[in-house]
Amino acid sequence: MDTVETDVLIIGAGLSGINIAYRLQEAFPDLSYLILERRENLGGTWDLFRYPGVRSDSDVYTLSFPFHPFPGRDTIVAGGELLDYLADTAQRFGIDRHIRYSTEVRAANWSSAEQRWTVTVAGPDGIGELRTRFLISATGYYDYDHPHDPRFPGIEDFTGTVVHPQFWPSDLDYRDKRVVVIGSGATAITIVPAIAEDAAEVTMLQRTPTYVLSRPRRDPSDGLLRRLLPAGPAHRAATVKNIVGNWALFQLARHFPAKVRALLLGRARRQVGPEAVEEHFTPPYNPWEQRLCVASDGDLFRAVRNGSVRMVTDTVDRVVPEGIVTGSGELIPADIIITATGLSIKIFGDIDMIVDGEPVRVGERFAYLGALLSGVPNFGYCIGYINLSWTVRSDATARLLTRVIGRLRDGDAAVVTPRLSEVRDSHPLMDMKSGYLARSVDRMPRTTGRYPWAMDKNVVRDLWAVSRASLDNGLEWSGTRESDPAAVRSSRVRGPASSRSSGI
Ligand SMILES: Cc1cc2nc3c(=O)[nH]c(=O)nc-3n(C[C@H](O)[C@H](O)[C@H](O)COP(=O)(O)OP(=O)(O)OC[C@H]3O[C@@H](n4cnc5c(N)ncnc54)[C@H](O)[C@@H]3O)c2cc1C
After folding, report:
1. By the 8 A CB rule, do 11 and 136 touch?
2. Nearest-CA neighbor of 421 among 473, 369, 356?
3. Closest residue to atom 16 of ligand 1, CA basis
4. How many angstroms is it from 147 CA to the middle of ligand 1?
5. Is the distance from the beta carbon of residue 36 to the nearest atom of ligand 1 less than 6 Å?
6. Residues of the chain with pLDDT under 70
7. pLDDT tens digits for 161-193?
8. Which residues fall within 8 angstroms of residue 267, CB to CB, at 6 or more apart?
9. Which domains does the chain carry?
10. pLDDT (tens digit, 9 = 90+) per residue, 433-457?
11. Counting CB atoms within 10 angstroms of each CB, which of 106, 199, 251, 275 has the fewest?
């Protein structure tokens, strides 16, 4: 494998990697960059998840890139459409030419003497090394290979088929079968109505209810904006409307939880009736303490109402050969069990990061504006919002990192390192009570709750802070481009022209 050197190396060709690549090449057309992707395709989440009905939960105006509006008319869109859209974006802007597929980043070593990262990768040609001045992790937030596994007792004795939605077999035939979906999150809520018509029986078995909000697949107010305005302004107006709408709901939920709870439960009652809401749609926590889930055009409520889905709110006591025995002793017979039991968090793709010989323990580091890491030079990462479309933060992060890299190109310094002098308080970066986040707080970067060491769930405040950041408060700029050994080495650089270092 060639020893390629680039100005910027991006890990991950999902939505965030494509987003960052676009912003970087837009600002610095001569900058050299590569995207390393461990899978054989781009798209990340939207390529991995293939379960029936897979779709966005958030509106496509905020989920698509501001620089390339999503072309369709629906507000909630199918996973396959999002994947096509990401592929189209990468191709349209020439980003796909910078992607190396089937290349997994295993380790990254920073040398202050070299002012470089040396990145160890496993690719089609074996193990190799790449060098870069600036490293960006756009690896998403969960483990692609190991979803959360609650280890239901007896599951190995089940005589039917067990499927995790993360690995949906394309040939799974659920027609006329009895299916039990275990879970109450967005995935279970999507799969259950999608398979209800074809399966013989579908039971959604949940331990804890979730707030479910019915949203139209095609929002008439977005349609109205399209009719009144040209395409670009209509998209921007719908984006602003949806950011403000989500922000307002989140703020109301924080400040007036009882009122928002009453509002959500009232809407659910109108859809599915008071008894079902009492039993299966009344969570024991306040709205937005965990993620709110969406039923597209009220599909889950409709399926419960017409009897094609049965809800059971109970624990799993054990799995037996013919089905599941609940905590209250009921046997639910099943041919297929779908364990929609959630994700397992993985930050920065579990890469072994070393700075001048010292291993970096991510859970002990602090997040600078949710995009850089305390004590780690020339390193950025992209983590999106969990209470709004991921892309809104991914694009804000991409712009911030572009500003940081711009200063390294145009200023005197060659190295930027976030430095936090005093810690009074500390919280996990993705702070919510959802099980999958709570299980992994010790592996996440921390925040102090005070900017620039914060990433507030008040997205309007957060977007303001990120876009107005001074880049002096909390960041140490050091090294000089004259002391940079690259100038000496550039004549030795090998690899494709597009990945040669031009100097940032
Ligand atoms: C089922 C589901 C539904 C969702 N619905 C929504 C929604 O409606 N709205 C929303 O805003 N968000 C949603 N999300 C969040 C979703 O993850 C984001 O929308 C977005 O796709 C994240 O993009 P990303 O590029 O940051 O991460 P990912 O999509 O996870 O992509 C990361 C990429 O990095 C690669 N990678 C990881 N580690 C390495 C490594 N070591 N070396 C090389 N490559 C590596 C992966 O293979 C992958 O391609 C959903 C998530 C899930 C799981």
Report:
1. yes
2. 473
3. 45
4. 14
5. yes
6. 1-2, 431-438, 482-504
7. 999 999 999 999 999 999 999 999 999 999 999
8. 213, 214
9. 4-144+344-488 (3.50.50.60), 155-339 (3.50.50.60)
10. 666 666 777 788 999 989 999 999 8
11. 275
